[in-house]
Fold each of these.
Amino acid sequence: AERGGMIGHGGVVVFDDTVDMAEQARFAMEFCAIESCGKCTPCRIGSVRAQEVIDRIVDGEARESNTALLRELCETMIQGSLCAHGGMAPHPVLSALDHFPDDFNRQAVGS
Ligand code: SF4
C-alpha cells in the first residue's frame, strides 16, 4: 500500500520492452471511459480528459504543466470516484509516468 501496488483483476500486467507505456496509459483511460457507467464526474469526464491530456503530453504540448495536470486529474479520480472502476484506472497511468517517463516524450525518442 505504501508503494501504491495492488493485487486483483489487472493488478499485475506484464509487457515486453517494446511496449509504449504512454499508449498503455492512454488505453487504461480509454477503457475506463468506455466502461464507465456515467454516475460520477471524475470517472465519466476525467477519463476522457485524461486521454486528451496524455495526447498533449506525447505531442510535446506544454509537457511539464500537462504532466502535472494529468497527475492532479489522476488524484481527483482516485479520491473522487464513487467505485473502484474510476478509482483504479489512474494507477497504471501514474505507474507509467513514474517508471517510463521517456515513453511520454515522443520527440526525445525520435518517433
Ligand atoms: S467510478 Fe464507478 S460509479 Fe463512477 S462513473 Fe465510474 S463506474 Fe460509474
Amino acid sequence: MKKIDLNENRLLTPATLKKYLEENDLFYLVKTIGTSVQGRSIYSAHIGTGPKKVLMWSQMHGNESTTTKSLIDFWAYLNTPEASYLLSSCTFYMIPQLNPDGSHEYTRQNANNIDLNRDAVELSQPESQLLRTVFDEFSPDYCFNLHGQRTIFSAGDTHIPATVSFLAPSADAERSITSARKDAMRLIVAANNTIQEFIPEAVGRYDDGFNINCVGDYFTSKNTPTILFEAGHYKNDYGRTVARQMIFKSIISMCEVIASDTLKSFPIDSYFDIPENYKNLRDVELCNVNTSLSSNSNLLQTFIFQFKEEKFEDHVKFIPQIDSFSKELKGLQKIDFQEHKVFKDLIFESEEDLISNLTKTISLLNFHQIP
Ligand SMILES: [Zn+2]
C-alpha cells in the first residue's frame, strides 16, 4: 500500500497526521496532552535531554498546515544520528496541531469560531488554556509559533512572493527592543542567512504592531523570546513544498544557534534589513480581456482574481474570486487574453456574464499549462 505523502495536499487532518506518524515510526513519541472543543486529541512530543528548552507549536490556525509538515520533518530529523548534539543541548516540546478541529475542517478558527491567536489573555478556549499550561509548566527558553500566510504577501514593496516571513513580536505598545525580542531577532537573522541561499529576496518581515491577545506578543511580554514563522507562496507551488523545506531549514538553523550558544554573533541590525511584507500580490491577473461593457466597443481590461481556499472532500479547492483592481497589484500568474487563441475572441456582454465566465475560465486553467 502506498504510504501517505504529505507533500501536495494543503488539507492536513488530524487523522492523516496520525496515520503519517504511525507509518513513519514516530507515533511512539506522542503523548496526548489535552482535547479540543469537539473532543479530538491534542498531541505533543517531548524529545531531548539538554538544558535549553524550546517549545514549538503549529496549526493553531487549522488551515495553515505547511508548518506542521516542517515541524514533523524536524521531529523525524531529531531521530537521526546527525541530530544527537541538538538532543544533548536542548529539550524540545512540540505540539503539531494545537487546533485539531480547525485542522479537520480547514478553518482558521477552532470549533467555537474563535481565533486562538487572539485568545492569549482571555483564554476562553480549551486549546488556548492548554498552550498556556504547557508554557507555564515547561517554562521554555524559546518559543516557535508556526503559521502559514496568504499568497497576497510580497517580500518588501516588490512582486516577489514572501515564501517565508518572520516576526520578533513586540512586548509592549512602544515596540521596545527588550532582551527577549533581541534574542528572537538574532535567531531570525540566523535563519534568514541560511535560507537566502535558496530563496534569495523572498523572505519578509511582519509588522510589529503590539497586540497582547496574540500569543507571540503575550509570551514576549513575559520575556520569553518567541518567533513567528509564516510559510508562504513560491512560484507555482500551491502545495507549498518549497516553504515547507525553508521552514524546516529555518528551524534547524535556529536550533543549532541555540545549541551552540552562538546567538550573540548575529546582529539585530540585520533583522531590520529584512524587507517588510507588502500586500502587492494576487493569484491571477487576466489582462487585455475584450469586453463590450463600456460604450467604447472592444475595450481591453485587466481583472484580478484571488483564490478562496475551501475544503472539498479530502483536499482543498482553490476557488477564484474577482478582486478590486489597483495599479500596485500584480498577479502571480498573468494571462494575456490577446496572446491565446482560445481567449482572444471571447467578448463579455454583461458584468455577470464576465464574472461567471472568467471564473469558469480560470477554474479550467491548469496553473502551469495555459493554451
Ligand atoms: Zn496563522
